[in-house]
């Protein structure tokens, strides 16, 4: 399995969305089962939501990194006035 650092934006975004959707699905299943499996489904849903959020943040960083304009000069220091 590839390291998450080597994943592309699309891979991170789809994985984050999938994990978050999986967490919501587990919570819906838990509600439909009248909380019979709350001891099992809730911790799995929390872990899936945390992992989905972390991968989504990685996708956001990749998005920002990919949208940098190489022709635009980077200002450092005080603004010119």
TrEMBL record:
Transmembrane intervals: 12-33, 39-63
Keyword terms of this UniProt record: Hydrolase, Membrane, Transmembrane, Transmembrane helix
GO MF: hydrolase activity
Protein name as it appears in the record:
Alpha/beta superfamily hydrolase
Origin species, per record, is Glaciibacter psychrotolerans
Lineage summary: Bacteria, Bacillati, Actinomycetota, Actinomycetes, Micrococcales
């Amino acid at each position: 399995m590839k390291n998450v650092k080597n994943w592309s934006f699309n891979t991170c975004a789809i994985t984050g969305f999938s994990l978050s959707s999986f967490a919501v699905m587990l919570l819906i299943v838990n509600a439909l089962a009248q909380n019979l499996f709350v001891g099992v489904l809730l911790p799995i849903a929390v872990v899936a939501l945390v992992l989905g959020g972390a991968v989504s943040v990685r996708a956001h960083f990749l998005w920002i990194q990919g949208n940098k304009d190489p022709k635009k000069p980077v200002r450092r220091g005080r603004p010119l006035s």
